[in-house]
Amino acid sequence: MKTIFISEGDPTSINYELLESAFPQLQSLGNHHRIYLVRGPHNQTLPSLPNLSKPIDGPGFYSLTWKGTGKSKSFVLGKPSSASGKIAYDSLLSTIDFQKEFGGDIITLPLSKEWVQKAGVKGFRGHTEALAAAYKRPTFMMMAGETLNVIPLTTHVPLQDVVKELKKFDWKELCRAIQTSPYLKHPSIGYLGLNPHAGEGGKIGTEETTILKHGVSSLRKAKLTVEGPLSADSAFLPGAKPYDLYLACYHDQGLIPFKLLEGKKGVNITLGLDFTRVSPDHGTAFGIAGKGCADPTGLIACLERLVETKTKPV
Predict the structure, then answer these.
(1) Where are the domains of the chain?
(2) Mind listing the pLDDT tens digit for each residue in 55-64?
(3) % of the chain at pLDDT higher than 70
(4) Pfam families per the record (predicted)?
């Protein structure tokens, strides 16, 4: 029996519509697992969902309201605010606290970095980075789909800072994260060059022969199978040699092809933790919140990842 905590994310987003659409699956899984929606005090709710003050031993699907929640707030779907950003951030922190105390895995529903920052949380870059800070260890974002697995070596940083971030990248910890992940078993790895055409032997930049070469050497010393640098503009084309895992130098280099090819079934998995954290591969979608058209495929894919009985083949 697994324990799964779901951080509610921004309550003015599509998240509660996703939960309502996936309610049958959540209740069914609750027959054999403990599933808790960690939420704040507000008017967005799920009908017939029992509320608890702390986790219990038995299976079921419940909501947990964190301590010291204060006065309940009234939110309108599609109308984010600093208050909804604060609720989303507090839900994340409370989910982490519950996980540390009771163990288990985490699903984080989407929040808005903009509104979390407007709520006064300085330096917030995203879930992956927040988890690294909370658990005091390097974390890595792996986008996992039905056929593709992609790790961006830099995540939520401006494009102008990518090279600086790559220079201080922790390749040793990445090796450890890959080797200990239950979702990766002896993967073949292809790494994408930073520059157009992978630098063309130094004619269009030297990062491939300096920064990336050093990192790849670390991976090979760890007995990992690595090939590259690959030209990023053709690595995902039909007919290109497939790899179990792709390393992208920056966020959009890896996530644009991933989202195009995997669609709504992609899942964001955080590597480097002693438990599994997953998130749907989409954002808050404030523009469609409340219109009844939110697709729960991503949330259902997260649930399937956490309760599958054997490691997904790679």
Answers:
(1) 1-137+273-314, 138-271
(2) 998 999 999 9
(3) 97
(4) PdxA (PF04166)
Q: Which runs of consecutive H residues, i.e. helices, occur in the chain?
A: 15-21, 23-29, 82-102, 113-118, 127-135, 162-167, 171-180, 211-221, 251-262, 297-307
Closest to 152 (Cα-Cα) out of 31, 33, 253, 61:
253
Element (H or E) spanning 188, and its range? strand 188-192
Cα(21)–Cα(300) distance, integer angstroms:
10
HSE-up of 8 (CA within 13 Å, CB side)? 30
**CB burial readout 62-94, b (16+ within 10 A) else e:** bbbbbeeeeeebebebbebbebbbbbbbbbbeb
Residue of 96, 111, 112, 32 lying closest to 64 (CA atoms):
96
Are 110 and 279 a contacting pair, CB within 8 Å? yes
The pTM of this model reads 0.89
Q: Does domain 138-271 have CATH number 2.60.40.10?
A: no
Which residue is it, tokens 């697992």? 33
